[in-house]
Amino acid sequence: MLNDIYNKRIIELAGNIPRLGRLSDPDASATAHSKLCGSTVKVDLKMNGDTVTDFAHDVKACALGQASSSIMASHVVGSTASELRELRETVRKMLKENGAPPQGKWEEIKFLEPVRDYKARHASTLLTFDAVVDAIGQIEAKIKQPAAAQG
């Protein structure tokens, strides 16, 4: 039932999103948009090497997009690029392939598990994960570009 995906914890997460706004000097910015529902998440990311050091986001999304963005913002600083890529894949599999939700610091994503039964809601739930991975890719490309120019 649709009420299952809008459970109490999802509403709490959506109503208390940390790190809202934009960074003044991000290493990269990325936007993810769902054409189906119109939700948009813009993220700003700073990294030192492989580790996220700062994060901000502008979230114009439904409660599911807000909730997943809230979870991301609560735990992204200190996470590594490989951890965040793996997280996106784990959440994608949770929604689309009946995979298990992540464990550890990301375990609150389990509250999004009922979204699995509503394909139309998958895109908005994945927005923050897609945008963060996009921003990481931009930062890595910038790092490789000067190295390639020197080589």
TrEMBL record:
NIF system FeS cluster assembly NifU N-terminal domain segment(s): 6-97
TM helices/strands, residue ranges: none
Coiled-coil zones: none
Species of the source: Bradyrhizobium agreste
InterPro entries xref list: NIF_FeS_clus_asmbl_NifU_N
Protein name: Iron-sulfur cluster assembly scaffold protein
